[in-house]
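Exercise 3.2. Students should predict the tertiary structure of the chain below and write it as structure tokens, then compare their answer with the key that follows.

Predict this chain's 3D structure.
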Amino acid sequence: MRRTSASLVAGALVAALAWASGPSSPAVALDPSVGVADLTQDINQILSDSRLTIARAGVVVKSAETGEELYATDAGKLLIPASNTKLFTSAAAAETLGLDYRFPTTVLSTGRKAGAVLTGDLVLRGTGDPTMLAEDYEALAAQVAKAGVKVVTGKLVADDTWFDGQRLGNDWAWDDETAYYAAPISALTASPDRDYDAGSVVVSVSASGGKVKVTTTPETDYLKIVNKATVGDQTNVLIERQHGTRTVVITGTVAGSYQEWVAVDDPTAYAASLFRKGLSKHGVKVLGPTEAGAAPASAKKLAEHESMPLGELLVPFMKLSNNIHAEILTKAMGREVSDQGTWSAGLKVTTDFAKANGVELLNMRDGSGLSRRDGFSPASIVQLLSSVRGKPWFSTWYESLPIAGNSDRFTGGTLRSRMQGTPAANNVHAKTGSLTGVTALSGYVTSADGEPLIFSIMLNQYLSGSPKDIEDKIAVRLAQFSRTAAVADTTRLRAAEGAPAGDLECSWMKPASC
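Answer key:
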């Protein structure tokens, strides 16, 4: 039966208490034979969907309390996980870096200060903070001015050496280069808004006075805008940065307002340009050019900004499935453990963490899941989800997962428009994953008996539109699962309408509100 709003709220409270407390005694006396056969029959029926005839489907469901496997098909097959990869990256980061970990961004000086003149260089040094906004760079500039510096005789040095120089992830598609969800990775970067899409700028167009007006967020002259668009009866516009350049070309027609998030070519140079602009605004003149380089050991700190702690960053990271956060955290883990801010060092940290928690089958090429060579089995994902329940950081991490049917963007995340009005709403905490021909959903759900369940659903190589409704049907059925009572045939396979049909994570499809 469909639960009322009051019962949904109560169910959410029960679920939160059950998952946050980790392993405990079952809420009711369970008979392993009751209800499991119906559950198996129903999931088999859901997976018999014709869209999956040529596809690969792997599904595992386990009881978190007993470890009993309630359902499995192709549990050990290696499948493309898409953003389910972030489950491993985020958990390893929580374990390795700790929830209190912060990214500092510092301004240092070389040489000697005499009065208001700094004879030497000014160094902007980053450690990967993806939450730095233009206003934060301006605040750093204000600190420099407050320290009494008005003239810098040397250069502005941008120090991004905390990470290596590899900007793009392994196996990332060339045609994603200008997309904000595949932005270059650097230890110095900037975000345009509080989604914290580091390494990107929002380019906006609007029809004004018979002409197409172009603005950027933040305001910056770093990008070269070539506006070829014209005012028309409808908005059909392309905003795209040309390969390997700072040039953004706008073509097509504009009738109203439209925005596009565009990745910059060089996040280090872009961040330095924002800082230099802030210095100018606060009356600090740097006579020399901007150059990339490393701060000498003798450099002295003039100003510093620290990011929010990792425990807070997990929310925009996981709720909105932020690829850049995943890759920055990967390199940060490499730097923390082996003093190497590289993908290879960071991925080793994550894979070692996974193996230490019982995961045997995995292939990681990046931290976000954008690579099509990433591979996990459904059983491996369920093993990770089971193992981390006993971690001291689990409660914070669990709450960072998208929550089905909760319309608040930073609560429901990529699941906010899915499974609304079903027993899964405000119950399922799970990570979504989407690429063309790939969808996945893995996480936690509390059954109708109050029994915590862990599941992983991975669908690959379909040619239809995204079959996310199949994931939703399974998740809803798990929320209805009971060992002690039958589920009515008319309700047990029902899922709410409205699962996004796109090939990318819904939060990647800006400015759509999915």
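Discussion points: The chain is about 30% helix and 25% strand. Residues 95 and 391 are 8 Å apart (CA to CA).
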